[in-house]
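Amino Acid Chain and Its Fold in Token Form
===========================================
Structure side: the spatial fold of the chain, written down as a series of whole-number tokens.
Position: the record begins directly beneath this header, with no further notes in between.
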Amino acid sequence: MPSYRLMGWDSELRSEIRRNFKVGQRFTLNDIYELETYFVGLYPNNAHVRDKLRQILQHLRDEGVVEFIDDQGNYRRLK
């Protein structure tokens, strides 16, 4: 059992977005999917990591962290 505590999906993805993209910078769903291996390592029992990442992007959109630019998988970091 690891000695650290996981932050949770929302916090982990928010942290990765902040680390990888500047405020105002655009990114794609494929950019987020490139983090899949990282999240599989954090949550090895989750067989639906991509689905969860999309769900968390919706949470982050609702919190005003990211903006959905279009239905083609394009986003912008807001904060």
Notes: The beta strands are 26-28, 66-68, 74-77. The chain has four helices and three strands. The chain has a mean pLDDT of 92.
